[in-house]
Amino acid sequence: MAGVFENAIRTFLSPIGELLDDDSVSEVMINGPNEIFAERKGLVYLTDCQFPNEEALMAAMRAIAQSVGRVIDDDNPILEARLPDGSRIQVVIPPMARKGTSVAIRKFSKDDLTLTDLIKFGSLSKEGARFLDICVFLSKNIIVSGGTGSGKTTMLNVIGRRVPETQRLLIIEDAAELQIVTEHVVNFETRKADPTKGVKEVSIRDLVKSAMRMRPDRVIVGEVRGDEALDLIQVMNTGHDGSMGTVHSNNPLDACTRLETLCLMGDTQVPPDAIRKMVASAMQIIVQCNRYHDGGRRTSHISEILGLDEHGNYIARDIFRWVQTGRDPETGKYIGEMVPCNYVPSFFNDIVVNKLPFPKSNFIAPDWAIPLLNGSKKKAA
Ligand SMILES: Nc1ncnc2c1ncn2[C@@H]1O[C@H](COP(=O)(O)OP(=O)(O)OP(=O)(O)O)[C@@H](O)[C@H]1O
Ligand SMILES: [Mg+2]
């Protein structure tokens, strides 16, 4: 049956077939039948591909909706689904989409990326990667933060795979994207409500709550974007150290504020002050992903959250940051590297007692980078 849908979808999507087959294309954006953009190597360009008309595009979207047991029509104008190959698709139809049916396809990445690959891409330094590995090993709670398409899921995938084999890992996602394969992993996916068939919604929140009763060592929530934030924070604060998730935010402090806001979105009776304290004590490491204007995706910060100061503000300390040192005149690509920020994390002693080969000197900023670190701090302030 799956094969039948697959062939039908393939036929309907044949106008963009070449983009779907091209592994160097990471995203396809359809803005009505005649305007199709694609992203390759981080840069977005207008393609020659077109659908014959709006009806043909709509027919393709109906086939995709049908393949996942859903409908897309006037009553259900937004579709969030996955293609048979695992690619994520988001659709909005007219009249909400003013240019015609609008679609974004995040292609499923076939590469099983590793920390070494991220070093090769220039997204992490060797020391930064090794430090993240240590954070996972030491069961630090890690939030991967970043804007849309900045590489959050990719980063979570890479570090999630570093969880020691002996630990039981429960993964909860809206649409299964993560490909974490370890010895003991259990995956859960939410279900949308379908009142016409009497199907009730099963939310991330429901799944996180049930995961707590399934003896997790660690819980991973693919994308925290609603009141399930509170459940994840509680998981992190109740002995399931080493839990992880991603959140949509622009810098490490923002990630804390964002999680706090999400916690308050639900019907919680917990007062805002208490929520802030809970977020501050749950957060340990924030990995900030960024998509730069040159198309490069890099880890801009690895920071530690140290709780709240006397005014109730979050305290974040950068451990590693990516700094730009120049720009290649030919390619326009930024030149730079990830450097330590002269801050030794509060848990350095855990690194020592566990005999992990990561000397204190790895946290010392090189002299040349200090003005750059200070300069960009000034700019951000
Ligand atoms: N470090 C990197 N270097 C190069 N490409 C990357 C890197 N990280 C991610 N990518 C690519 O960027 C695209 C977006 O990545 P990803 O899905 O991880 O982003 P995201 O932040 O989770 O996006 P969204 O906000 O839409 O969920 C993917 O095609 C992925 O392969
Ligand atoms: Mg993502």
Q: Can you give keywords for this protein?
A:
alpha/beta, Beta-Lactamase, Rossmann fold, 2 domains, nine-stranded mixed beta sheet, 25% strand, binds adenosine-5'-triphosphate, binds magnesium ion
Task: Give the overall shape.
Answer: globular
Number of E-state strands: 15
Q: Give the tally of structural domains.
A: 2
Alpha-beta content class: alpha/beta
End-to-end Cα distance = 56 Å
Named CATH topology of the largest domain: Rossmann fold
Write out the strand line-up for the largest beta sheet, numbering strands in chain order.
9-8-10-11-7-12-13-14-15
| Proportion of residues in helical segments | 25-40%
Strand content: 15-25%
CATH superfamily of the largest domain: P-loop containing nucleotide triphosphate hydrolases
Number of helices: 12
Q: Whole-number average pLDDT?
A: 93
Q: Could you say what the CATH architecture of the largest domain is?
A: 3-Layer(aba) Sandwich
Distinct ligands? adenosine-5'-triphosphate, magnesium ion
Residue stretches low in confidence (pLDDT < 50, at least 5 long) are: 377-381
Overview of this protein structure:
By secondary structure, this protein is α/β, with parallel strands linked by helices. It has two domains: 2-106, Beta-Lactamase (2-Layer Sandwich), CATH 3.30.450; 115-380, Rossmann fold (3-Layer(aba) Sandwich). Helix content is 31%, strand content 25%. The strands form two sheets. A nine-stranded mixed sheet has the order 9-8-10-11-7-12-13-14-15, sandwiched between helices. It has a six-stranded antiparallel sheet with strand order 3-2-1-6-5-4. Strand 2 and strand 3 (43-46) form a beta hairpin. Helix 1 (2-12) runs antiparallel to helix 3 (54-67), helix 7 runs parallel beside helix 8 (228-237) and helix 8 crosses helix 10 (272-282). The longest helix has 14 residues, at 54-67. The protein is globular, with a radius of gyration of 22 Å. It binds adenosine-5'-triphosphate and magnesium ion. Adenosine-5'-triphosphate binds at residues 26, 106, 109, 118, 121, 123, 146, 148-154, 297. Residues 152-153, 223 line the site of magnesium ion (MG).
